[in-house]
Amino acid sequence: METQATANVAFLPQRTPEDAPLPRIPPHNFEVEMGLLAALLANNRAYEKVSELLRPEHFADARHGRIYDAIGKLAQKGQQANAATLKNYFEHDGELADIGGAEYLARLQASAVTIINAQDYAQRIFDLYLRRELIDIGTDVVNEAYAFDVDSDANAKIESAEQKLFDLAEKGQAEGGFKTFNNALTAAIDMATLAFKRDGAVTGVTTGFADMDDKLGGLHKSDLLIVAGRPSMGKTALATKLAFNAALARQRWIEQALRDGRDLDDPEADGAVVAFFSLEMSAEQLANRLLSERVEIPSDKIRRGEVAGEDFPKFVQAAQELAALPLHIDDTPALSVSAVRTRARRLKRTHGLGLIVIDYLQLLSPPPGMRAEGRVQEISAITRGLKALAKELDVPVMALSQLSRAVEQREDKRPLLSDLRESGTIEQDADVVMFVYREEYYHSRAEPGRRPEEDESKFNERHQKWQERGEQIMNIAEVILGKQRHGPIGTVRLRFDGQFTKFSDLAPSDHLPEVYE
To answer: 477, 503 in Cβ contact below 8 A?
Structure first.
């Protein structure tokens, strides 16, 4: 007896060979490629118009790519490139037959088009190349999705696909080139005007610290900033405070703009919407730190619920204020740069974005598919990716970084650029490098002990000097600007309260209130 399934199959329409879909051929246009080569052979100066955009591998016909490459090499040597010289060039390399022979070169030159069309032809060839590359990526994505690999989950495959698409998009950005000095000058004047309207020297995102804004002029768009330091120096606390200050400035500006009926997209807006990627601490730990700093209650007491009754209303109010900030925290561990890029793009599209903070650089994963050639190469790829991200999204990117133990071996433990782990690539790609240093941390661990057979008075004298120095540096942190492309280097002194992991402006001694006894 025929089963129901078999019966159903019997009534399915049968596909005939005539109905089978025709194989799809990757997009190409050999006539356009031939037309461009003909134009270049007719006048080699046309090569200058297309060489920045077009490379030999962009041609669908490999023969055309080799001819284009030969034209370029001859033109760069100042030699004439035509059918005759190309014939000699390929005969010398024994490749004349591979490109169709002398007859093919003569036919190309005979079909010359006007030089005016050269750039249009080049753009068409490049567009078709991008389409073929996109097809290849799509095919790879499908094949990798079908292939099961225990060492690579679905998210890793998605990130790999995103990285390939981003790399292709980078190739497709052919709109670069020279800007007239007038346009560049106008942009510089606009930046100076913005700083004047803000009644200060801040043209970027404010740090919330007066002396730091004076040195940096704010955090500038498309900049990669590195905040580095040894453990327990306060890197995360400083980055969190900078993110908080930027978000708070934006929140206050939004509130004022709504009262004044101003456009919320005004380029003069203060502060920034912040994306904070915390690869080390959880979002709850970061929020706990901000609460502790805001209400000045030790974070361990907040975590244990030991908040005094009289402090609770202040605690609740601070929590409500923090909840309204345009500060977005992603605590997913081991993110790759491509994943950071995807999430930052999404945030910019939905909520806007003015600052990215990453805690910390060495915890980012290398690009998907990158072979393990050494940690230096991985960090190099990561820092290049972060710099590209800053330029692509037109926002400052701040990444925290660890320092090597070489600092601990010196008497003066102030960090240097050479102390950066994998320092060559980080130092090269960064626009600003700043180090967090607290002498108090090292001084408190170097209390002098009494030496054998040392006179008590000498010991007391040494101990007294140690105490006096401790009082001088108590609660003082230094932010050392080791590199800045746009301005001076130097040191900014801040106040640091370790009990609440709180950074704040340091009032100079001549501004302190008088003390009356």
So the answer is: yes
Cα–Cα distances in Å, from 289 out to 69, 89, 240, 273, 493? 59, 70, 9, 19, 22
- What is the DSSP pairing of strand 502-505 with strand 490-497? antiparallel
Cis peptide bond N-terminal to 129, omega within 30? no
Which range, 215-224, 400-409, 442-451, is most confident? 215-224
What was the pLDDT predicted at 226?
92
Q: What's the per-residue H, E or C state across 270-328?
A: CCCCEEEEECCCCHHHHHHHHHHHHHCCCHHHHHHCCCCHHHHHHHHHHHHHHHCCCEE
- Helix 154-172, helix 118-146: angle, nearest 10: 180
What confidence score (pLDDT) does residue 298 get?
A: 77
Burial 192-224 (b: 16+ CB within 10 A, else e): eeebeeeeeebbbbbbbbebbbbbbbbbbbbbb
Question: What percent of the chain stands above pLDDT 90?
Answer: 9
Q: In what order do the strands lie in the sheet with 490-497?
A: 327-330, 274-278, 355-359, 397-402, 224-229, 432-437, 476-484, 490-497, 502-505
d(CA 277, CA 346): 14
Mean pLDDT of the chain: 79
- Three-state DSSP at 128 gives helix
pTM of the model: 0.68
CA distances from 371 to 162, 361, 451 (A): 17, 19, 55
Is residue 401 classed as helix, strand or coil in its secondary structure? Answer: strand
Q: C-alpha 460: how far from its chain's center?
A: 53
Distant-in-sequence, close-in-space partners of 88: CB < 8 Å, separation ≥ 6: none
How confident is the model over 256-300, as pLDDT tens digits? Answer: 888 877 776 766 678 889 999 988 888 888 888 888 888 777 777
Residue 386 is encoded by which pair of tokens?
Answer: 């972060």
Q: How many residues does the chain have?
A: 517
Give strand pairing partners of 481: 434, 490
Under the banding of pLDDT at 50, 70 and 90, the label for residue 187 is low
Give the number of C-alpha atoms closer than 13 A to the C-alpha of residue 392, restricted to the C-beta side: 20
* Segment 474-494 mean pLDDT: 89
* Distance separating alpha carbons of residues 475 and 450, to the nearest angstrom: 27
Place of tokens 């980055």: 239
Taking the C-alpha atoms of residue 440 and residue 463, their distance in angstroms, rounded to an integer, is 15
pLDDT at 102 over 80: no
